[in-house]
Amino acid sequence: MFVGHYAVGFLLKKKFNEIPLWVFFIAVQFVDILAFSLVLLGVEKMSYNPTDNPFLRTSKDYVPFTHSLSSSLIIAFIILLVIWKLKNKTWGIALSIGVVSHWFIDFIAHTPDMPLLFNSYKVGLGLWNYPWIAFSLEIGFFLGAGYYLYRDAENLKRPIILIALLVLLYTPTMFAPEGEMPVAVFSIVSLSLYFIFAALAWWTERKQN
Q1: What are phi and psi of 58, to 5 degrees?
Q2: Torsion angle, alpha carbons of 165, 66, 1, 100, to 10
Q3: Cα four-point dihedral sign 48, 49, 55, 58
Q4: Is the distance from CB of 119 to CB of 62 less than 8 angstroms?
Q5: Is 88 exposed, middle or buried (0-12, 13-18, 19+ CB in 10 A)?
Q6: Distance (Å, rounded) from C-alpha 21 to C-alpha 136?
Q7: What are the tens digits of pLDDT across the range 40-57?
Q8: Distance CA 145, CA 3 (A)
Q9: Regarding beta strands 58-62 and 114-117, do their DSSP bridges make them parallel or antiparallel, or are they unpaired?
Q10: Residue 173's pLDDT is what?
Q11: From CA 10, how far away is CA 153, in angstroms rounded?
Q12: What is the pTM of this model?
């Protein structure tokens, strides 16, 4: 999933309102930020998979350090300890939940390529095998979480812009023609989008003069 992870960010923001939304946007995608960084460094491996299904065109060939359940739990625990030390307990708990949520959201969507332990015992419920159902459920989850967060907001202009931009930028993936994109380019584009969306979340909460 993609915007589905940001839906979790919305839900966490509702629960832990004192933490900025952009921080949650980084937390829920932290696993992928690490993964694409390691792919660029040649540590983890992804490749192009020729298929009509737009959700299955990126094959996670070797991602044990970021996308295994065991690694996700270790990363989340490290985040808990570091943020607890640097900030406070509430921030540590909230951000570690955001980090580990990534694996469970991916588990629902992915075909069995999500390792439980390092690179072994791969699982996945395979929602992506049904692209239109997956797309509709993800958009619905995202919009529902956005409504839940902002339903009592006094000024909805910026939140609506944020939500609309994420939906508009995500939707074309459903209609992208089959064609190989170099993994390095895909990694850089993905990393750029993660930080652009975090910047948009920061802008959404920035006080207006």
Answers
A1: -110, 115
A2: -90
A3: negative
A4: yes
A5: exposed
A6: 24
A7: 999 999 999 999 999 999
A8: 11
A9: unpaired
A10: 84
A11: 13
A12: 0.94
Whether the predicted pLDDT of 209 surpasses 60: no
More confident residue, 117 or 180: 117
Q: Are 136 and 142 in contact (CB under 8 A)?
A: no
- Per-residue pLDDT for 11 more than 60? yes
Task: Give the pair of three-digit tokens for residue 152.
Answer: 């009592």
Which among 105, 90, 75, 86 has a CA at the least distance from the CA of 5? 105
Taking the C-alpha atoms of residue 183 and residue 180, their distance in angstroms, rounded to an integer, is 9
What is the Rg, in whole angstroms, of the alpha carbon atoms belonging to the chain?
17
Encoded tokens for 98: 């955001």
Which candidate, 56, 26, 58, 57, places its Cα nearest to that of 44?
Answer: 58
- Per-position DSSP letters for 32-90, written without gaps between them: HHHHHHHHHTTSSEEEE---S-GGGSEEEEE-TTTSSHHHHHHHHHHHHHHHHHHT-HH
The domain segmentation of the chain, as residue ranges, is 3-205
Question: Per residue in 190-203, pLDDT tens?
Answer: 999 999 999 999 99
- DSSP letters spanning 151-173: TT-S--HHHHHHHHHHHHHHGGG
Element (H, E) at 114: strand 114-117
Measured from the Cβ of residue 166, the count of other Cβ atoms closer than 10 Å reads: 23
pLDDT band at 208 (very low <50, low <70, confident <90, very high): low
Percentage above 70 pLDDT, the chain: 99
* Amino acid type, 157: K
